UniProtKB/TrEMBL annotation:
Organism: Microbispora hainanensis
Pfam families: BtrH_N, DUF4872
Domain DUF4872 intervals: 155-324
Ranges where the Butirosin biosynthesis protein H N-terminal domain occurs: 14-142
Name of the protein in question: BtrH N-terminal domain-containing protein
Length: 327
């Protein structure tokens, strides 16, 4: 058996920030989950609908692992990433750092994990691994999934090797904090501006504020679009609130990030952004409730209401990001 000593196996709301928190605390850098999310410029929006999908996907953050790369670049951290198609090499890439006393991050498909409560394919799931024995591995996942958990080595291998949307080839990574790290407080404004600029200048209409507007236009037809409305709409709503988003499709996390920032930086633009994302978080929760009701009752009126709120959210978030881009 090999176990990394001193790991604080604390699960939080979102998988990637949970894993980052484990790795960085072990390096001596302890930041809140909202601060990790915000410094990684994690907020975004995508409306994704394709043939073969039972229901459109509403995503509220940047692509898997982009948050990690953003955070490492912004704070001057050394991010060491390994990928391989070899099962033997894939295991060596995680066993070696653990044997050396360091936890390691993994990107995988949650469908195969023994402990996972909802068996759906999601290839962008991220966990921290801090130990193993002959049969099992020790992981840290979100609080919702149990925090400190175990899964078999065989299930882990399947999860890491799965191919499909958002997957990576047995990706593993470690993070090293330099002896003289950058002051993370000085990186807040650049992180906020970068997130705002990307949100405002999204290259296609499915992303950013235009993506929210498009979702609002499409929402009234979701009863007809869904393969099984009674299943698909409540599941979509559940993912928005409880699918590792921290609530309100990540808007609650970003609201809390901006709230922490206002305590460190007395800027009127940050205070305005914090207030506006507080409003947005409430509205996103209303949208998810209406989507769930529409599926449960077969009520298209709920989807018309959701569409109207989404159009309001598009304008609200555009205005908020314009304010934040001028910090």
């Amino acid at each position: 058996m090999a176990i990394v000593e001193g790991v604080e196996a604390r699960g939080t709301h979102h998988c990637e920030t949970t894993a980052l928190g484990v790795l960085l605390r072990h390096e001596g850098l302890d930041l809140s989950e909202p601060m990790l999310f915000g410094l990684g410029s994690g907020l975004s929006f995508v409306y994704w609908d394709a043939k073969g999908m039972p229901f459109p996907f509403l995503g509220g953050r940047v692509r898997p692992f982009e948050l990690t790369r953003n955070l490492a670049d912004r704070l001057g951290l050394t991010l060491t990433t390994e990928e391989t198609t070899s099962p033997r090499k894939a295991w060596q890439n995680v066993a070696a750092p653990i044997d050396a006393g360091r936890p390691v991050g993994l990107q995988l498909d949650s469908y195969h994990l023994d402990y996972f409560r909802s068996a759906v394919h999601f290839g962008g799931h991220v966990v921290a691994m801090y130990g193993y024995d002959e049969h099992d591995v020790h992981l840290v996942d979100t609080e919702q999934q149990g925090g400190a958990v175990r899964t078999s080595r065989a299930s882990l291998a399947r999860a890491r090797a799965e191919r499909g949307p958002m997957t990576a080839r047995n990706r593993s990574f470690t993070i090293t904090v330099p002896p003289r790290p950058l002051a993370w407080q000085d990186r807040i404004v650049p992180a906020v501006r970068a997130c705002a600029d990307a949100f405002l200048a999204a290259p296609i209409a499915n992303l950013g504020w235009r993506g929210i507007e498009k979702a609002g236009a499409k929402a009234p037809g979701w009863l007809e679009r869904a393969g099984d409305p009674g299943r698909d709409l409540p599941q979509a709503a559940l993912l928005m609130e409880k699918g590792g988003t921290g609530g309100a499709l990540f808007r609650a996390l970003y609201r809390d990030f901006l709230g922490e920032c206002t305590e460190l930086i007395g800027h009127h633009g940050l205070r305005a952004g914090h207030r506006m994302y507080g409003e947005a978080a409430v509205l996103w929760t209303q949208v998810s409730e209406l989507i769930a009701k529409a599926g449960e009752r077969g009520d298209a009126g709920c989807l018309r209401q959701a569409g109207a709120i989404l159009r309001d959210l598009s304008r609200l978030e555009k205005d908020a990001m314009q304010v934040l881009s001028r910090l």
